[in-house]
Amino acid sequence: MHPDNWDALRVFLALGTQWRWIAGPMGARAAGLDYAAIPPTLVLMGMAATPALFAQLRAMEGAALEVWSRRR
Known about the structure:
Helices cover 53% and strands 18% of the residues. The protein is an alpha+beta fold. Helix 1 packs across helix 3 (51-71).
C-alpha cells in the first residue's frame, strides 16, 4: 500500500460498522457509509478532515459497494 493511503485505510476500517443499509424485496444492501460518523471518528483518531482524505474514503466506499453488488 502506498503510504499516502494509510490514514484513509485506517479511517475506513474504523468506520466498518457505520454503513447505511437499504431493505428491499431482494434483501438488504449497503447504500454507503454514514457520513455523519466520519467527523467524530476522525476526532477520536486524532486526525484532521481534509478534502483529500474524504476523496480517498469515497473511493474506498465505491470500491466496496462495487464488490458487494457483484456478489449479489
